[in-house]
Amino acid sequence: MVITVVAISAFLSIGMRQRSLVPGRMQSLAELSYEFIAGMIRDNVGTEGRKYFPFIFSLFMFILFANLIGLIPYAFTFTSHIAVTFTMATVVFLGVTVIAIARHGLHFFSFFLPSGVPMVMAPVLVPIEVLSYLSRPISLSIRLFANMMAGHTMMKVFAGFIIPLGILGGWAPLTVDVALTAFEFLVAFLQAYVFTVLTCLYLNDAIHLH
User: Fold this and answer.
1) What is the per-residue burial (b if ≥16 Cβ within 10 Å, else e) of 113-133?
2) Taking CA 26 as the corner, what is the angle to CA 24 and CA 29, rounded to the nearest 5 degrees?
3) Which of 83, 92, 129, 183 is surrounded by the fewest CB atoms within 10 Å?
């Protein structure tokens, strides 16, 4: 995790060191990551979500770099451990809940009974909505952990066949492993994106109660 934070800090510091009007490669990547998250917040939360940009941006970069560093041979993919992903999901869950209560007070609990629903449905609908809300950190954490663990497990399984099969048969699992590695680069980005965009949607619910 420390290496991930150092890598992100180095990437952004080096990328924005020149601050050129015509950006180079590193500056373009740094600006692109900034604009990408800014657009995500604008589309999913609105202008009221701008104040939460530092947290959302940090969350995305942390997960993305963690996933990418985990693809380096002999590196440790800590996002494939439920203890790590559940902690991050719990922080997100508690954060948006505190924001919702701070903004709306007791009116926050109307979130569990949408307007226009007949009161006769409340005994059934409210428990379902509460359970759905409380399951957010579980689904958020399992999605990231399971995808990262499954991908790396498959890579390790196929890699284990390369040497035993020798020169004649080893090329097949090697080819699969190369393809899986390329696929895992895509998964690394997608999982960081999904975790972050869901955080934005939860934040939108906290701000607007819908």
Assistant:
1) eeeeeeeeeeeebeeebeeee
2) 105
3) 83
Write the CB contacts of 210 (distance below 8 Å, at least 6 apart in sequence). Answer: 111, 114
| Of 136, 177, 146, nearest in space to 80 by CA | 146
Nearest CA to 26 out of 11, 10, 42, 4 is that of: 11
> Closest Cα to residue 77, out of 19, 138, 4?
4
What predicted TM-score, i.e. pTM, was given to this entire model? 0.88
Please tell me the distance from the alpha carbon of residue 191 to that of residue 54, in angstroms, as a whole number. Answer: 19
Phi, psi at residue 175, to the nearest 5°?
Answer: -65, -40
What's the CA gap between 58 and 43, in Å, rounded? 18
Range of the domain at 83: 2-208
Burial of 51 (0-12, 13-18, 19+ CB in 10 A): exposed
3-state secondary structure of 30: helix
Contact 165, 172 (CB under 8 A): yes
Of residues 117 and 178, more confidence is placed in 178
pLDDT tens readout for residues 154-210: 888 888 888 888 777 788 888 888 898 899 999 999 999 999 999 999 999 999 886
**Sequence-ordered list of residues with C-beta below 8 angstroms from that of 182, at least 6 positions apart, any chain:** none
